[in-house]
């Protein structure tokens, strides 16, 4: 049978759910939910609330007869997710071009025909729900004729009918590429001498804790608008002293924090949920570690005046008391902090 219905729409970035891999199970679950065979939207206020499949009609079995993975874009990359000003997560995805078969078994034959008609009706009615779940295109390809199936039991009659649909399904997933995807220190070699370029961003860890510095210039002014941070600081280690230093013209201001953890507490962390006395904060996974993200806006209680770096001698600096992160006994530890100055 030629196509009964067909729809193709562009799905907004805010729609759909994130998945770690192309999951056929997610596609099948969306179809079963759209038909009312598997109910997972019990909220009475849900605009996509779907009635349960009629009890007097045979329930179809659903299978995938063919599937081909299609590229979503170059490298399957669809964007970047940020925490503050850090582009820390690559948003990726892909598409599955699949043939889905619905099979109905029952008796009498008019009941089987009615079930196929109900299938078409429900899928048409659920097109917005299916689009939300990532099914961008859904086209009826072929519906078989009623077929009598000889039964092992002479007193039982079984009729079969199938309906095939071509589906284009888009799935999404994250790719953090580990914390190394944040390039904070770039080693370069000039005339045989090695140096480190940090720009307005740096990383502190057990290898190094370089100063984060922003200098003025003769032809530009830099407004220190905020400082963003990503911090992996599990309990058990607080670190040593952190100093924020500003020199603009003849004015100098210094603010000192007794530890890295106290320094982190000065930031407004990105909240995920707030209810009652409990607050949870968003985290981003990099290299298997969960980082807190936050922002310290200027001016603030530590620096009440705007910080505008103009002259060549003007400087905004954040420094750590030691050359790198070490434990109390000088042992290696795996704590990491990223910082970036925002204009």
Describe this protein's structure.
The protein has four helices and 23 strands. The protein has 343 residues and is mainly β. It folds into two domains: 6-175, STM4215-like (2-Layer Sandwich); 180-342, no CATH class. Strands 1, 2, 3, 4, 5, 6 and 7 form a seven-stranded antiparallel sheet that branches. Strands 10, 13, 16, 19, 20 and 23 form a six-stranded antiparallel sheet that branches. The chain has a four-stranded antiparallel sheet with strand order 11-22-14-15.
CATH fold annotation of the largest domain: STM4215-like
What structural class is derived from the secondary structure elements?
Answer: mainly beta
Q: What is the terminal separation in angstroms?
A: 62 Å
Q: How many domain units?
A: 2
Number of helices: 4
List the helices and strands in order: EHEEEHHEEEEEEEEEEEHEEEEEEEE
CATH level 1 name of the largest domain: Alpha Beta
Sheet with the most strands, sense and barrel status: 7 strands, antiparallel
Which percent bin holds the helix content?
10-25%
Radius of gyration: 30 Å
- Tell me what portion of residues adopts beta-strand conformation: 35-45%
* Poorly predicted regions: 1-22, 41-45, 183-198
Structure summarized in a few sentences:
With 343 residues, the protein is mainly β.
Question: What are the salient characteristics of this protein?
Answer:
343 residues; mainly beta; STM4215-like; 2 domains; seven-stranded antiparallel β-sheet; six-stranded antiparallel β-sheet; elongated; disordered N terminus
